[in-house]
Design a protein that fits this description.
Order of helices and strands: EHHEHHEHEEEHEEHEHE
CATH topology: Carbamate kinase
Low-confidence stretches: none
Largest sheet: 8 strands, mixed
Radius of gyration: 17 Å
Bound molecules: Isopentenyl phosphate
Distance between the termini: 27 Å
Helix content: 25-40%
Number of domains: 1
Number of strands: 10
CATH architecture: 3-Layer(aba) Sandwich
Oligomer: single chain
Strand content: 15-25%
Mean pLDDT: 96
Shape: globular
Strand order of the largest sheet: 3-4-2-1-7-9-10-8
């Protein structure tokens, strides 16, 4: 049984427009889906995003820019970290009675982006692992920064052995679309030479939004057979990907 690495997007598990508001029902459906996959014998890594538990305050305190001279950002770091703990605990609780191994990036990662330093061997033990986008320490002069869950997806999907699936469960879209308006159609199979329509709300997101996700999914597709961007509100589609190899969503393949 292959290892499944999945992202629970922040826009899926929280209401992005309202500070620290969790979408509890969606979290529970995703957790029930993970329970099924675990019963099937898969090892699973869950990476969850931040949504309104991370991005709103990170932007307010400019945490994505690192240490800014003359600005006291300590309160912001502490607030975002404790808000992320709160979201993380909701995710862990939803998986009860499964026992899970939780890895807070601030405890083992230095620096941000795809080349962050951190030993991911801790994800090798059989079972279910959980981690998330976080405020991590960085080398000087930045001192700290925001590590996106999408960069964790990249490293975990490409460096852990036996990864059969990397699934990005998103909110509000069935996958990649040809255009954002009502004439937009789902792109069932996508590679990086093909156009797609995406909107990144830079005023909300401190990480790269859909463009970061798509870029990371493309790199992962060079290593992993099943890479998908799909609507995480339909968790039966995750099961279909794993059991049947196809579903409603966008499969990302190498060019
Ligand atoms: O939502 C961002 O992680 P992402 C983490 O996975 C924070 O990009 C704390 C804003």
């Amino acid at each position: 049984m292959g290892r499944i690495v999945m992202k629970w997007g922040g826009g899926l598990i929280s209401d992005k427009s309202s500070l620290c508001s969790a979408e509890n029902e969606r979290i529970q459906h995703l957790a029930d889906c993970v329970k099924r996959l675990s019963e099937m014998g898969h090892d699973i890594v869950i990476v969850h995003g931040a949504g309104s538990f991370g991005h709103i305050r990170a932007r307010e305190y400019r945490l994505d820019e690192g240490n800014i001279n003359g600005l006291d950002q300590t309160e912001g770091i502490n607030l975002v970290r404790s808000d992320m703990d709160q979201l993380h605990n909701l995710v862990i609780k939803s998986l009860h009675p499964l026992s899970v191994m939780s890895h807070r990036p601030r405890d083992f990662v230095i620096n941000t982006g795809p080349d962050f330093q951190g030993n991911i061997e801790r994800f090798l033990l059989p079972g279910i692992h959980i981690t998330f986008g976080d405020v991590v320490d960085c080398d000087e002069p930045l001192d700290f920064g925001i590590l996106s869950g999408d960069d964790l997806m990249l490293r975990l999907s490409t460096e852990l052995p036996d990864v059969s699936h990397a699934i990005f469960a998103m909110g509000g879209t069935p996958g990649l679309m040809t255009s954002a308006d009502s004439s937009g159609e789902l792109i069932p199979l996508w590679n990086k030479n093909m156009p797609f329509s995406g909107h990144h709300s830079e005023d909300v997101d401190v990480t790269g939004g859909i463009f970061l996700k798509v870029n990371r999914a493309d790199v992962i597709s060079q290593y992993v057979e099943h890479v998908w961007l799909m609507d995480g509100e339909h968790t039966s589609r995750i099961i279909e990907i794993v059991e049947q190899g196809h579903t409603v969503g966008t499969r990302v393949v190498t060019a």
